[in-house]
Write a structure and sequence with these properties.
It is a single chain. Helices cover 78% and strands 0% of the residues. By secondary structure, it is an all-alpha fold. The protein starts with a helix and ends with a helix.
């Protein structure tokens, strides 16, 4: 849902032009991502405890609202000038905040176990490549933040394909429908 909220913010606050077809394509992408991301077998079989979801709702709502504000702001911030230095400053500031919270305040060990250093480093590299790609895209396509956020939300498609082919996970019919909606939404955005 945050891509829809982010699109509203991008349109209302930053005056990005989003036409009717683009709104519909964004909604199709979000619905596709939701259908692909959820383990529908647990939901339909009643194995998913409603209490588990209720405990997480305040955090889910908070992070949804934060992302809905963050991505349009990041898009506007990195679209003008040197996106590279701005991204570096954002990541350094984020690292400082996390260090203060986890090391100084909570006194937790933040280094991974010795056997997980390479894997953790790989995850850090992949995350950074993702942010570099997003920041470059926002600087290369000024005024299209809402569209970029919707495309970013289609990561569920790549995750589902990865899970199917690499991890041999079986997808449900609903997840296949979600993949189809993501592909349709992306195609719709690219044509519109």
């Amino acid at each position: 849902t945050y891509p829809i909220l982010a699109a509203v913010i991008a349109a209302m606050v930053f005056k990005e032009a989003i036409v009717g077809q683009q709104w519909l394509a964004i909604v199709v992408l979000v619905v596709g991502a939701i259908l692909t991301s959820v383990n529908w077998a647990e939901v339909l079989d009643g194995k998913l405890d409603g209490n588990e979801l209720a405990k997480g709702w305040p955090w889910i709502l908070a992070t949804t609202l934060i992302h809905a504000l963050y991505f349009p702001l990041l898009g506007q911030f990195t679209s003008l000038g040197s996106w590279e230095s701005k991204l570096l400053l954002i990541k350094l500031f984020s690292a400082l905040i996390m260090w203060l919270v986890f090391v100084v305040v909570r006194r937790e060990q933040v280094l991974p176990p010795k056997g997980k250093v390479a894997f953790t480093s790989l995850l850090g590299l992949l995350e950074m490549l993702g942010w570099v790609g997003y920041s470059w895209a926002t600087s290369a396509s000024v005024g299209q933040t809402a569209i970029l956020i919707a495309v970013l939300n289609s990561a569920a498609l790549i995750t589902a394909v990865w899970a199917y082919f690499v991890l041999n996970e079986k997808l449900s019919k609903i997840q296949y429908l979600g993949i189809g909606l993501i592909v349709a939404g992306l195609s719709w955005l690219s044509l519109g």
